[in-house]
Design goal:
Blueprint: H1 2-24, E1 31-32, H2 35-44, E2 49-54, H3 61-77, E3 83-88, H4 94-98, E4 106-111, E5 114-118, H5 124-132, E6 141-143, H6 150-162, H7 166-197
Parallel strand pairs: 1-3, 2-3
Antiparallel strand pairs: 2-4, 4-5, 5-6
Helix pairs in contact: 1-2, 1-6, 1-7, 3-5
Organism: Stentor coeruleus
Keywords: Membrane, Signal, Transmembrane, Transmembrane helix
Transmembrane segments: 166-188
């Protein structure tokens, strides 16, 4: 169990680091998130982010994303430090279900361990005003979901593999093996000492 927790923490730390690097290089661009990256933002509790949940099967998506992108650039050019992201629920379904979002489009303003839901309007000026005046604080506030379940930690490990980051996966595996070996050695040593005493 301890080994599993260590692996989980190592994976979470690496993924959050990757995400932080992506955010650093945005320069006002919208961060297009996978479901897993969205979870990393929510579960980490470290990022201030405004994420648009939309359905690409909706005919009005193009204008929606265009306005969202313009608002992001405008905020950045005026020195507002916020990560603007977007997540297509047609492909990433787990996170929005955890957040109990039932209508789209919906934007969630995430701050440490809390988030606010916003259902529009989504034009550039409305989004800009919402963020700069911090009007999102007057919206319904919810507690962010708790940390990942065991199954989701395993899916994080799998996600690292399919993203081609096998070096990270192998390193984590080696740490786990060494730690497991140490525990086995400690248990055997303890048994030998008990036998000698008897």
């Amino acid at each position: 169990m301890i080994v599993f927790m260590m692996i989980a923490l190592a994976i979470a730390e690496v993924l959050e680091l990757d995400l932080a690097k992506k955010i650093e290089n945005l320069n006002g661009q919208v961060l297009e998130l996978s479901d897993q990256e969205g979870k990393n933002i929510v579960y980490s509790g470290y990022f201030d982010a405004f994420i648009l949940f939309y359905n690409s099967e909706d005919f009005s998506t193009k204008k929606l994303l265009n306005d969202w992108s313009k608002a992001s650039l405008k905020l950045h050019s005026n020195g507002v430090n916020i990560t603007m992201g977007s997540l297509d629920v047609a492909y990433g379904k787990k996170l929005y279900k955890k957040l109990l979002i039932k209508n789209f489009p919906c934007a969630c303003y995430f701050r440490p361990w809390k988030f606010n839901q916003y259902f529009g309007p989504f034009d550039e000026d409305s989004i800009y005003e919402l963020v700069t005046t911090k009007s999102y604080l007057q919206l319904p506030t919810y507690s962010s979901p708790y940390s990942l379940t065991s199954a989701e930690y395993v899916s994080k490990l799998f996600y690292q593999g399919i993203e081609g980051q096998w070096v990270i996966v192998i390193n984590i595996g080696l740490v786990a093996l060494i730690f497991t070996g140490f525990i086995i050695y400690a248990c055997i040593s303890s048994m030998i000492r008990k036998e000698k005493i008897q």
